[in-house]
Amino acid sequence: MDTLYLWQMGVVGAIHGGLMLGLLWLNRYYKVTPFFLFGTWWQPLSIQISLALLTGVVSMAINMMVLEYAARMTLLVVNAGLLTLWYLELGILLGRKFFARLFDDELPKEISIFIAFVLVTNGGYFTLMLIKALFRADTL
Predict the structure, then answer these.
(1) Does the pLDDT of residue 22 top 80, yes or no?
(2) How many domains does the chain fold into?
(3) Is 93 helix (H, G, I), strand (E, B) or coil?
(4) What pLDDT digit, counting tens, does each position of 48-101 carry?
């Protein structure tokens, strides 16, 4: 593999790892358990950083395998699926905790969750467009 592809995969892995770390920190702050983890074993900071690094490395490996055996469009679909997981969890968390407090529980919970989903949909779209632009780049 070319070094450009390794850098691209590293940046994409860092994006996924950073999203995972941010989700774990938000879940610990709001004292809730993420939908993809069980129990409270994930709450120490060292374990959260380890999970984020593991997520980054695994997404990097998945992207390398997909790029080796499939087209670049498949690579975008795989990354869109992973981003959907992270941003779906973020939308649920923000809708239940952050926006409910922001609006002082005056709005129905469904509207707060809807506002959160609109925001995270935009975040997911722009993150995917960043990844797409990254894979189309010819140089660093």
Answers:
(1) yes
(2) 1
(3) helix
(4) 899 999 999 999 999 888 888 887 788 889 899 999 989 999 998 888 888 888
Q: How far is C-alpha 72 from the chain's CA centre?
A: 20
The tokens for 10 are 């590293």
Q: What contacts 24+ positions apart, CB below 8 Å, involve 56-62? A: 56/13, 56/14, 56/16, 56/17, 56/18, 56/20, 57/13, 57/17, 59/12, 59/13, 59/16, 59/17, 60/9, 60/10, 60/12, 60/13
- Per the prediction, the chain carries an average pLDDT of 87
Of the candidates 9, 3, 2, the residue with the CA atom closest to the CA atom of residue 134: 9
**Domain extent for 122:** 3-136
